[in-house]
Amino acid sequence: QVQLGESGGGLVQAGGSLRLSCAASGRTFSSYTVGWFRQAPGKEREFVAAISWSGDRSYHADSVKGRFTISRDNAKNTVHLQMNSLKPEDTAVYYCAASSRYCSGYGCYASSGYDYWGQGTQVTVSS
Length: 127
What we know:
Order of helices and strands: EEEEEEEEEEE
Largest sheet: 7 strands, mixed
Oligomer: single chain
Low-confidence stretches: none
Strand content: over 45%
């Protein structure tokens, strides 16, 4: 069992930066793939980024590639999402999720592959 909690959301102007954190409980967290997803009002939840259990593989959606970076610190049971050059279209509730299954590439993009979810943190980017 893994419990997840996101933090770091807020209001920022376009072009600014935020760093989201996902803190996890559970001693086996280091064996989970962790992903970030987001959901804007009236839209479906979409994949943002994912990182393997060891941190040696990471994947980013095309819409955030070059601006967002996912990383993890297993010693602290934490995964981060550094978001730079934010745009108004990045406005959404951001969720972290953990999966006990191995995934690679686009296989990590499906929300259905994740077993545990946090409550989400709001990110609002003003123009």
